[in-house]
Amino acid sequence: xxxxxxxxxxxxxxxxxxxxxxxxxxxxxxxQDRLLTAEELYSQLKKDYPDIGxxxxxxxxxxxxxxxxxxxxxxxxxxxxxxxxxxxxEVRQQLVCECCGEVAPLDAKELEPLCKHLSHLSGYQIxxxxxxxxxxxxxxxxxxxxDGGSGPRPGPSLAxxxxxxxxxAAGESGER
Length: 176
Fold this sequence. Notes:
- It is a single chain.
- This protein is an alpha+beta fold.
- It has two domains: 3-70, Winged helix-like DNA-binding domain superfamily/Winged helix DNA-binding domain (Arc Repressor Mutant, subunit A); 90-146, Dna Ligase, domain 1, CATH 3.30.1490.
- Helices cover 38% and strands 15% of the residues.
- The chain is built from six helices and five strands.
- The protein has a three-stranded mixed sheet with strand order 4-3-5, with no helix packed on it. A two-stranded antiparallel ribbon has the order 1-2.
- Strand 3 and strand 4 form a beta hairpin.
- The longest helix has 13 residues, at 54-66.
């Protein structure tokens, strides 16, 4: 992404193209290979733009996040960091129900900041991420609660070629 693309996006959304916004956009683009806190970016910008304010840097970063141009990354209790959105990473993520096997897609935008953070920490240039999250879908969860908890439940996997235990008919006991 370029400074020009950021400025064009601001203009398309009817935001004024101030020198402060230009400076923050330039700072983010020039640091596109790493994440910065607002304070770190402010310190860099202050050298060339002594009149820029920290609040302006925060507001501009928040605006760029809102427009989808910059990612906000919060990891644990650490400081919030910002980085240029990486549009070259393909993220495939899905939810899979343990009971019925239903597969549902997840919104990849939620993981983009994490990918940027992983890239920064590892030094890898990440090109693809695949994530599979398993759980119980709303339909199976509702069926289980409707059946008084005796509905579909995740259980241990069966060995290949084995059959699940047969259910006993009502009144039939297993004792002789």
